[in-house]
Predict the structure.
Amino acid sequence: MLSTINALEDISVSGFMKVFIRTFGCQMNEAESDYLSSAITDSLGFDLADSPSDADFIICNTCSVRQSAEERAEGFISQTKGESKNSSKIILTGCMASDSNEDLKIRFPYVDYFVRNNDKDRIVDILAAESEGREPCYDKSDSYEFKENYRNRNGCFSFVPIQNGCNNFCSYCVVPYTRGREVSRDFHQIIDEISMLDKSGVRVVTLLGQNVNSYRCGSRRFKDLVGAIGGIRFQNIKWIYFDSPHIKDFNSELFDMLASSDVFAKSFHVPVQSFSTSVLKSMNRHETQDDIYAFFDLAKRKMPDASFTTDIMVGFPTETENDFHATLDGVRKVSFIDAFMYYYNPRKGTVAYSAYRDLDLNLKKARLMKLIDLQGGISLNVRKSMLGREFDIVACKKSRKDDSKVLCYTEGNCAVLADEGKISCGQVGRFVLKELVGRTFLA
């Protein structure tokens, strides 16, 4: 990912330039924006603007995984041009800024810079040069390099990228084309960064990667990383998560390590996409319905109290009514606490785009609504089963709606509102979940 910027601390910029960053898409994008925020404020001395209208530089960190994400980013860019200062510079980065999207330069001529994923750290050089009246000049990077010291600005939660890119080439997915092939971060650098975050008081860490449990650094694999992290005696970190894993890269040994760990959260986001074997084959997903059921059976046997969330796609071009009902049956059987659900969008450049004819849009929407209704009921029932029980929670920030409440999260990522007098931001506590209002618990 982000390559080393030499002697950033020597850059001196006069004035109080302001930068606004808008991030779309995945947690990896959020992590990269966190890094940019840190580098821009700490190394350049710039301020972060509250809105595009106040900014001298506007950075739009984009996502191409789904059409809706691209549309939101395009809408933001168009709106921003009308609201920002006439002198503001607009920088578009992320997956939409890949070399294959040359048409964007025609559609958005007022965007000043298009910066690829591999070159995001060069944005700091661009800002420094622009503010000093110099012509920015940088070489494009051929590979993705990881950058140290990611941190979340609220000081409680932090992302640690450990892997980038994907080798799976699911037939509907653009990630291998926009993020590139898999690369893994140095083993010791990951350990050092997590240790640093613990010393700084961070409570929750999420290890990130597009296919996070395919991590490999030399002879070390993901299970070796889990073992090394699990052997550290943390002073502040309460839970460590990882996102997003692939079912094919789990095994019984890894489950045993996770089950016995005091720090790895017993909460897993595992995208399944479909429970139909034929659809999974068309998706090039490398597993069958039986494999998925076996995965969750093993996981629940090893960790009876574990919770699971997932991603599910409906309306894939080869999905029949029977395939769709297989997915509904799977959702009922597994009982996910939450799910991200969406219908298939053709993505240009993928195998599915050219190989299959898209289904009727109304049919896809109807299937999605049925799935959402089903999962909504399941999510509600799972939460109701938690009422009256004690859970550990981590306090994140003050409630936006009620200053007397603190927004907290359980190990399973359920939102909890607790009285500020009983717990403060950054603290860990144990509370009885007394009431459920919508999707949020009251403690």
Observations:
- The domain at 157-384 is CATH 3.80.30.20 (pyruvate-formate lyase- activating enzyme).
- Confidence is low (pLDDT under 50) at residues 1-14.
- The radius of gyration is 22 Å.
